[in-house]
């Protein structure tokens, strides 16, 4: 298969979808890999390393899209890339379709095969290609939240862990999954007083067993959320419904219950956000303030630590990329139910329920696109 790796062009996105080590593995299986010049620079990988691994370097993003059968990316295509995508071209990347009808309609119109990292799902319901970035984002949420609690950045002027004789900050984490667990570990390690909320009592029991004494658990419901946001300094939104829009657990009118300088970090913003007033921001302009409350809503948080993030992501994606390249996307998805669930849009049809539901669009049974003859 001919594989293309374009340079990411989303604002301050420094990750790359394939490392030189990944190129080596794909080449060992007989595949041709084209990499855009400087694609790995932001993550610390020079063109010479890709060349030594057997990649062919191309000067422009247009050239990469034009030649590749499978495009490997990190973030979803942005508007300037839409016209570069070809009919039947396989795109293997994060899409988060449910948060963008524009992107969804564009991919439907192009007739591309869109296999989304975030909905590749194992039988145990774990999300192997989302986990590594969730781990990074969960840890970063506390790191960034602690920074924006500083007074010069319009926060409450609170040191997250306090000092002897002064109480630490109160941190509320909405969601006890991968993001929430990692955020809790970081906040607890810095000495904060942490509360994790989740709707699963079984998950709360587990977290209660593994977390240090400065982490407590609480059932997630509107009453408890309203009470907790009155006294918390940092609130992390860590709710994920795979492939679907996140629910709003904190509404616009709830902001008036918070103290001025409270910091909100919505890690779910790329799936629509679990805080109603959050909208995607960039590393260039990461925050905005509503009713005195600081909102940090960067949609690609791991892009700020690209070396760590790229290695963590490609460790997870490469085995699946090899299956897609070795077998073709249809056979790979027939053979591997994880990959089958990653299919979101195929040949102008939505084949993932969460995306169809988000925009009230028709849903096509994914099995039908896997029984058709191989596309050219």
Automatic annotation (TrEMBL):
Active site annotated at which positions? 96, 270
In terms of Gene3D superfamilies, this protein maps to:
NAD(P)-binding Rossmann-like Domain
User: So where does substrate get bound?
Assistant: 15, 75
One BP term from GO = L-alanine catabolic process
Oxidoreductase among keywords: yes
Keyword tags: NAD, Nucleotide-binding, Oxidoreductase
> Which InterPro entries does the entry mention?
Ala_DH (IPR008141), Ala_DH/PNT_CS2 (IPR008143), AlaDH/PNT_CS1 (IPR008142), AlaDH/PNT_N (IPR007886), AlaDH/PNT_NAD(H)-bd (IPR007698), NAD(P)-bd_dom_sf (IPR036291)
Q: Which Pfam families match?
A: AlaDh_PNT_C, AlaDh_PNT_N
Alanine dehydrogenase/pyridine nucleotide transhydrogenase N-terminal domain residues: 4-137
As one GO molecular function, the record gives:
nucleotide binding
Annotated Alanine dehydrogenase/pyridine nucleotide transhydrogenase NAD(H)-binding domain ranges read 149-297
What PANTHER family does its record include? ALANINE DEHYDROGENASE
Record's family?
Belongs to the AlaDH/PNT family.
Recorded protein name is: Alanine dehydrogenase
């Amino acid at each position: 298969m001919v594989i293309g790796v374009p340079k990411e062009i989303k604002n301050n996105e420094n990750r790359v979808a394939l490392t030189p080590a990944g190129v080596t593995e794909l080449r060992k299986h007989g595949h041709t890999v084209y990499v855009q010049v400087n694609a790995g620079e932001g993550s610390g990988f020079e063109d010479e390393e890709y060349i030594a691994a057997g990649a062919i370097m191309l000067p422009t993003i247009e050239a990469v899209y034009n030649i590749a059968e499978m495009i490997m990316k990190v973030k979803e295509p942005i508007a300037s890339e839409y016209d570069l995508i070809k009919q039947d071209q396989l795109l293997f990347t994060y899409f988060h379709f449910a948060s963008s009808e524009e992107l969804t309609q564009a991919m439907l119109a192009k007739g591309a095969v869109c296999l989304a990292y975030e909905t590749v799902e194992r039988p145990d319901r774990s999300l192997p290609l989302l986990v590594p970035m969730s781990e990074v984002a969960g840890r970063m949420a506390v790191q960034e939240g602690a920074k924006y609690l500083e007074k010069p950045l319009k926060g409450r002027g609170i040191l997250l862990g306090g000092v002897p004789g002064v109480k630490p900050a109160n941190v509320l984490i909405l969601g006890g999954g991968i993001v929430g667990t990692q955020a809790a570990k970081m906040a607890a390690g810095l000495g904060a007083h942490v509360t994790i909320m989740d709707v699963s009592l079984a998950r709360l029991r587990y977290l209660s067993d593994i977390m240090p004494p400065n982490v407590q658990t609480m059932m997630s419901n509107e009453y408890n959320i309203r009470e907790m946001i009155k006294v918390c300094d940092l609130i992390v939104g860590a709710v994920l419904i795979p492939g679907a829009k996140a629910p709003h657990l904190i509404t616009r009118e709830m902001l008036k219950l918070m103290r001025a300088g409270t910091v909100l970090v919505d890690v779910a913003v790329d799936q629509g956000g679990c805080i109603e007033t959050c909208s995607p921001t960039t590393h260039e302009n990461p925050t905005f303030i509503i009713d005195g409350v600081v909102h940090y809503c960067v949609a690609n948080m791991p892009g700020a630590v690209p070396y760590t993030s790229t290695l963590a992501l490609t460790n997870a994606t490469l085995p699946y990329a090899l299956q897609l390249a070795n077998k073709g996307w249809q056979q790979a998805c027939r053979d591997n139910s994880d990959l089958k669930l990653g299919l979101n849009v195929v040949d102008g049809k939505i084949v993932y329920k969460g995306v169809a539901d988000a925009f009230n669009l028709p849903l096509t049974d994914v099995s039908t696109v896997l029984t058709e003859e191989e596309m050219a």
